[in-house]
Design a protein that fits this description.
Elements (H helix, E strand, L loop, with lengths): L6 H19 L6 H8 L3 H7 L3 H26 L5 H18 L5 H12 L2 H31 L9 H21 L5 H16 L4
Length: 206
């Protein structure tokens, strides 16, 4: 007998299905009924979990943000005990690999950014707040690793950890956009080269 999914599991299935549909058709052209079909449920069931298409879209945004955040945390946990340079390299590699693996969903990023200027006032506020939170979260993670490196004598004391953290986080967005527009773009190789140059420039002189 097939086990009936819990409410939490069903909600996640709806969000995952919505991510695929939004990525394929865009927010404006997506119908809630299409999401329901993709999730294998009735349209009314979607509204049991989300009161509107805006709410569903925002849930997809939060889901993608959580997935990328979990990827970062897992990479750092795996690299625990290693030097700051190796931890930063591991984090960068994990995030870029996640971007590559989810390339088919990258159109969602464009939809998310567009929502900060073209959605309803309420939705714009929600999206802007969430964007601010996720960027701050990643800057804290990267900045924390750099500060650990400075404290441990691995990196130069003169470096600005906040500025470098912002540049690293920004590189993920920038490289992801280039890879989305150009399937031949070598995002992993480019990111690896960038990170090597960055770390070499931060290393303390012995």
């Amino acid at each position: 007998m097939t086990k009936r999914p819990s409410r939490k599991e069903r909600k996640k299935l709806i969000v995952q299905a919505a991510a695929e549909v939004f990525a394929e058709k865009g927010y404006n052209k997506t119908l809630v009924a299409e999401v329901a079909v993709a999730a294998g449920i009735g349209k009314g069931t979607v509204y049991e979990y989300f009161k509107s298409k805006d709410d569903l879209f925002f849930a997809v945004f939060q889901y993608v943000v959580q997935e990328s955040g979990d990827t970062a945390e897992a990479a750092l946990e795996k690299a625990a005990g290693k030097t700051a340079a190796l931890r930063l390299t591991a984090l960068n590699s994990a995030i870029v690999s996640w971007i590559v693996q989810h390339r088919h969903l990258y159109t969602l990023s464009m939809e998310f950014w567009a929502a900060t200027v073209s959605a309803s006032p309420e939705m714009r506020v929600r999206m802007e707040k969430e964007f601010k939170n996720i960027y701050e979260r990643f800057r804290r993670i990267v900045g924390g690793i750099i500060q650990e490196g400075v404290a441990g004598g691995v990196f130069k004391k003169s470096i600005n950890s906040k500025a470098i953290a912002a540049a690293v986080v920004g590189s993920w967005d920038g490289l992801g956009v280039q890879a989305w527009f150009d399937p031949e773009f070598k995002i992993e190789k480019t990111s690896r080269t960038y990170m090597e140059l960055l770390i070499n420039g931060m290393l303390a002189e012995n």
